[in-house]
From TrEMBL:
This is STAS domain-containing protein. GO terms for cellular component: membrane. Keywords: Membrane, Sulfate transport, Symport, Transmembrane, Transmembrane helix, Transport. It comes from the Eukaryota.
Length: 253
């Protein structure tokens, strides 16, 4: 297509020199009408409202300004969407699917049950400087909300917070600092922080930053199931030995 356009511009444009402007405008109008696809726009509206906004912004920019302006608007809005998805990654509360060792989002699977005394959170994005502060605040909010819910319902108090890091492909120094701050928040509330299934790249950086020594190797597990089993064992041990739980809380204070 590029070669055909180049050949046309170089050798065929003189043939259109004496073509009336009315004919040229008619050709452009017909070509423009052929580019308008109402059904595609309707499909975008049904599937993704944001893509529809990008489409209409590009269309209006081309119609009322120029092709360059329309492309700039569309690309800018698309980049804004990417930045928002990176700066505000999704976090989920996981629950156990009955009669299985599978843990899935409670919002997506209503049959999933909360594990008594354990809050399981999944981070669904790499942890960078752009989203570290948001994740710290979001995790803290999840903890506060879970503790309030357990107090109102009279269920077992919260003892462990498990972070499922299977979707965290990478982490930077700001992300490691965020995990350290989360660990301090969890310790102040007398809880235990557990990591589940961190990727190899993440483990390397956690090891080099001495975070593994800080949290303890015994609190890092391959799967969520193993982490939940460890938390349940600790919970049952504390119930059978109240003095152990009291001493652990005093040490945290």
């Amino acid at each position: 297509m590029a070669m055909a356009v180049m050949m046309t511009l170089l050798f065929l444009t003189p043939l259109f020199h004496y073509t009336p402007l009315v004919v040229l405008s008619s050709i452009i109008i017909v070509a423009m009408l052929g580019l308008i696809d109402y059904q595609a726009a309707m499909d975008l509206w049904k599937l993704d409202k944001f893509d529809f906004v990008v489409c209409m912004s590009a269309y209006l920019g081309v119609v009322f300004a120029s092709v360059e302006i329309g492309l700039i608007i569309a690309v800018s809005i698309s980049l804004l969407r990417v930045l928002l998805s990176v700066a505000r990654p999704r976090t989920f509360v996981l629950g156990n699917i009955p009669n299985s060792a599978t843990y899935r989002s409670i919002d997506q699977y209503p049959v999933a049950n909360n594990v008594p005394g354990v809050l399981i959170l999944q981070i669904d994005a790499p942890i960078y400087f752009a989203n570290a502060s948001y994740l710290r605040e979001r995790i803290s909010r999840w903890i506060y909300e879970e503790e309030d819910r357990l107090k109102l319902s009279g269920e077992t108090s919260l003892h462990c917070v498990i972070l499922d890091m299977s979707s965290v492909g990478s982490i930077d120094t700001s992300g490691i600092s965020m995990l350290e701050e989360v660990k301090k928040i969890v310790d102040r509330r007398g809880l235990k922080l557990v990591l589940a299934n961190p990727r190899s790249e993440v483990m390397k950086k956690l090891d080099m930053s001495k975070f593994i020594e800080y949290i303890g190797q015994e609190w890092i597990y391959l799967t969520v199931q193993e982490a939940v089993a460890r938390c349940n064992f600790m919970l049952h041990t504390c119930k059978s030995n109240p003095e152990v739980e009291h001493n652990s809380k005093d040490n945290n204070v």
